[in-house]
Design a protein that fits this description.
CATH class: Alpha Beta
Distance between the termini: 37 Å
Structural class: alpha/beta
Shape: globular
Bound molecules: iron/sulfur cluster
CATH topology: TIM Barrel
CATH architecture: Alpha-Beta Barrel
Radius of gyration: 15 Å
Number of helices: 5
Strand order of the largest sheet: 3-1-2-4-5-6-7
Helix content: 25-40%
């Protein structure tokens, strides 16, 4: 059974992407953004492990979900496990929102070297990208903390070879 190290999860959220979503918060983050809202997620030895099977079972039991959000910490440092979870979420007919402190451009470069990063990026419908910049904090923004972060339509951006952002 594949395991994911998480700091926690939220069974139903309306603030982590469109619609009602289950949110899985990964444990471990390399970015260390100043004023990070949740520095307890940085430690790679922190949090606890969950079986992907158990997360999938929970998602199946939760009605009215539009999708699942993979949030930070940094999901792409556990790209292999999160890619498997994302594929199983998609197989249920749900969509995947992924948060990353890496930009889309950096992830696209990383994906050339790391098949797990490529799989997770390809399974992501919407990417909220980039580190948190406290000086660009804006509480009025939907689904993100600072203005530099973008809400990206990943399938369209990958297909067209340029970035398409979404407005909410
Ligand atoms: S990427 Fe997210 S979890 Fe990681 S330090 Fe930045 S704000 Fe915190």
């Amino acid at each position: 059974m594949t395991k994911i190290r998480v700091s926690g999860f939220s069974r139903e959220s309306i603030v982590d992407g469109p619609g009602i979503r289950t949110v899985v918060y990964s444990q471990g983050c390399t970015h260390h953004c100043p004023h990070c809202h949740n520095p307890s997620t940085w430690d790679f030895e922190g949090g606890y492990e969950l079986d992907i099977d158990d997360i999938v079972a929970l998602v199946k039991k939760t009605g009215l979900l539009r999708g699942v959000t993979l949030s930070g910490g940094e999901p792409f440092v556990q790209a292999e496990s999160f890619a498997e979870l994302a594929a199983r979420v998609k197989a249920m007919g749900l969509d995947v929102v992924t948060y990353s402190g890496y930009t889309f451009e950096t992830l696209a470069e990383m994906a050339k070297e790391d098949p797990s990063v490529a799989r997770l990026l390809n399974a992501t419908d919407i990417l909220v990208d980039g580190p948190y910049h406290h000086e660009e904090r804006d509480l009025s923004l939907a689904f993100r903390g600072s203005k530099n972060q973008r809400i990206i339509d990943v399938p369209k951006s990958l297909q067209e070879g340029k970035i398409f952002t979404l407005e909410f």
